[in-house]
Input
Amino acid sequence: MRVRKKSESAVVGPEAQGTGRGARKQMTRERLLDAALTLMNDGHSFPSISLREVTREAGVVPTAFYRHFRDMDELGLALVEECGLTLRRLLREVRKAGVPTTDIIRHSVAIYLQYVRANPRHFRTAASERHGGSPTMRQAIRNEVGHFIREMAQDMRLIGYRSDLPTDALEMICSLVINTMLNAASDILDLPADQPQLARELEENFISQIRLVFLGAEQWRAETAASHKR
Amino acid sequence: MRVRKKSESAVVGPEAQGTGRGARKQMTRERLLDAALTLMNDGHSFPSISLREVTREAGVVPTAFYRHFRDMDELGLALVEECGLTLRRLLREVRKAGVPTTDIIRHSVAIYLQYVRANPRHFRTAASERHGGSPTMRQAIRNEVGHFIREMAQDMRLIGYRSDLPTDALEMICSLVINTMLNAASDILDLPADQPQLARELEENFISQIRLVFLGAEQWRAETAASHKR
DNA sequence: GCATTTTGTCAACATATGTTCACTGAAATG
DNA sequence: CATTTCAGTGAACATATGTTGACAAAATGC
Output
């Protein structure tokens, strides 16, 4: 007969307000996701972190993991979804900012970078597992980014930007922009924190790249591509 | 007293021509590198593959690893160097192709894609560990890509492309191009092999993106950036 | 208020990992 | 030819991992 002294459910988050059972479950679920995100943030890539590491970081016993996910792959997918949500929120934010007539690019970039710095783990995860990671996760991210691209293209259509172009072309442009964005996010998050000068340079470079892309986009003619195709 | 029957050095590659001792050593070293590259090619990202897996794939006992590398990190760096060499070779190839006056972009892209398909493991590794991977490896790749960018910018200067622009601007443009290239490589290598139609589409999209970048590059004015900076 | 779910814990397992050490046998050295 | 060097072997270690099963106790359902 064992005596348990330290068995008052052990897992009580600092902000544990949810009193229901399902609420508490979701709480530790988020704990696990958060733990994985945190682990990924300092160097480790997702496929290299172990189930036990995650539970350790989350302050939970390894077996508790299975109450929430079948395996690490499933957690990975949930993670991707979370990152996707962050990206959508970002898009909504930029959209809300309206269409400042002057220097729209610099403005949007500023919002974007602010967002990146506010959610470093999400962006690092997205950038890092997009081409690396497990095939499952990679595919999931590809989908998520695809949705994002389409959404952005639709936005541009709505504000009437290059409304003469077919959807394909708009999406092509947007994907170029988003690639550049994710790339910049990764670069910026990797900077040593004590080098603000480097950050400024990188930021200016980033802005230039986006500006250049839109410079090209303004010149883009559907016939250009078509004429070269045949 | 143990009897050894199967101990004729066990490790003899198919194309084992090198007869010297150092030669044979370098041979198994390459075996290890090759094994790692192969493992990475089917899904696993570098930090997730184990020392033992590598030696297993290389057909060598685990302890033999230490005769060549201190640890996996060191092997990772060697791997990056190898990928860098491949990239340089590619650049030389494109350079050798000269400056076809018409449709230079389509031409270069063709050479590039051919190269990517010929060395899928190198490109997958580069693309995948660039943002993911261990910090050490990531930094190494960043350096390698940086060299590549500078080299390419210098090339463009030599052929007189936009010779009016400062070096910064040229490098900014090149880094945009290279990002797009690495991105496309990753996308293309992830395609299911039985979907040539998808490959064509992706390829056309890739060409369009590069074309758009150069369209922007032709319009780029140093003053544009400058005027917005102040 | 009792029975039932259900979230999390504990103990234990088979297996995989990185690393050590002493060894072998062929190439290099003299 | 005798000696030394050293790339590769084999056995063994401590440790870490994923996963199972039985159990505790709090929330839920009746």
